[in-house]
């Protein structure tokens, strides 16, 4: 405990862990009077010509004090000070742990068990019940839980610096700043989802990042606008070595999610060692996971080829069916119609 108090005033020290060597020199009478007037008993000179050992009349604790301090100021007994801090904390409903790392701050344990540093002045207001202590750790956990319940993830402070806002990532991967109060009440929408992206055309993309570690990494994912996702959401630096190498059109965002999920499941199963550890790229690419070592680029490409072929075949089948239906409807509605008109509706690339 002494080490927290040792440097609390450069003039007063608790007795104990210092090598207390007597300094052999006479003590002028008026020094005793100074000490008495300030609530201390002068025991002896110690360490060097500038220091004294005092005993506090309040608590009987001993301390070292500079002669200069004794003469010009009111020395503060560290033992009494600690007792005052302990009492303050107790009355404020927290546990005193020691001096804080900044002037006028105390290290305390909150009722929830978290440890923190708080200004003495704040603790005094808490004692007077004019304010309450909020635990940032608990608040963060609560905000994270609130976000999760709405399908969001709290990922950081507001980039614009607003204290009432935080940065969140939606289940759709879109990153957006949201007022904390709105996250609590749910009175907001994801800008990405609210625009109907689930039904809109989307893309499965493949990007290459050259990490600072020198490693080539591949990211696969889906987005309604892969180029914009790369530029505005994924890269953390303007001149980052990142390239969009492929986009496959998918009719709807809903299907893109499914395809992407299946893609990652396959890649993880077939190449469990190729998924990069987040620690390696966290500072360079804004994603939680799904970055692969470029050594499996060919395998990823092959999977994407399969997806693309499947989607194209299906699109052709659908188009054929659509034209067939159209033709049939035309035939039914105008039985004696000109045959040339229906011929024009034949698909251009019959297979
Ligand atoms: Zn004292
Ligand atoms: Zn807490
Ligand atoms: Zn969304």
UniProtKB/TrEMBL annotation:
Disordered: annotated segments: 327-351
Recorded superkingdom: Bacteria
Entry protein name: GIY-YIG nuclease family protein
């Amino acid at each position: 405990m002494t080490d927290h108090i040792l440097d609390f005033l450069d003039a007063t020290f608790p007795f104990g862990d210092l090598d207390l060597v007597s300094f052999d020199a006479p003590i002028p009478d008026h020094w005793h009077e100074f000490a008495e007037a300030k609530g201390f008993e002068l025991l002896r000179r110690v360490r060097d010509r500038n220091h004294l050992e005092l005993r506090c009349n309040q608590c009987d604790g001993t301390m070292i004090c500079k002669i200069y301090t004794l003469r010009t100021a009111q020395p503060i007994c560290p033992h009494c000070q600690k007792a005052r801090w302990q009492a303050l904390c107790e009355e404020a409903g927290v546990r005193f742990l020691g001096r804080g790392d900044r002037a006028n701050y105390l290290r305390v344990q909150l009722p929830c068990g978290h440890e923190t540093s708080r200004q003495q002045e704040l603790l005094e207001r808490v004692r007077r019940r004019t304010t309450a202590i909020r635990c940032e750790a608990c608040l963060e956990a609560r905000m994270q839980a609130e976000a999760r319940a709405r399908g969001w993830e709290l990922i950081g402070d507001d980039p614009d610096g607003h204290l009432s806002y935080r940065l969140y990532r939606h289940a759709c991967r879109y990153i957006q700043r949201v007022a904390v109060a709105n996250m609590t009440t749910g009175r907001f929408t994801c800008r990405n989802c609210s625009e109907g992206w689930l039904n809109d055309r989307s893309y499965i993309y493949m990007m290459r990042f050259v990490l600072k570690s020198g490693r080539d990494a591949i990211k696969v994912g889906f987005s309604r606008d892969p180029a914009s996702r790369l530029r505005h959401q994924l890269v953390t630096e303007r001149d980052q070595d990142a390239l969009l190498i492929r986009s496959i059109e998918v009719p709807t965002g809903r299907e893109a999610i499914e395809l992407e999920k299946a893609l990652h499941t396959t890649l993880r199963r077939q190449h469990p060692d190729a998924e990069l550890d987040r620690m390696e790229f966290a500072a360079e690419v804004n994603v939680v996971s799904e970055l692969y070592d470029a050594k499996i680029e060919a395998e990823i490409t092959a999977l994407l080829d399969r997806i693309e072929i499947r989607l194209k075949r299906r699109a052709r089948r659908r188009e054929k069916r659509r034209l067939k239906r159209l033709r049939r409807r035309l035939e039914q509605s105008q039985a004696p119609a000109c045959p040339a008109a229906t011929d024009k509706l034949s698909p251009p690339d019959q297979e």
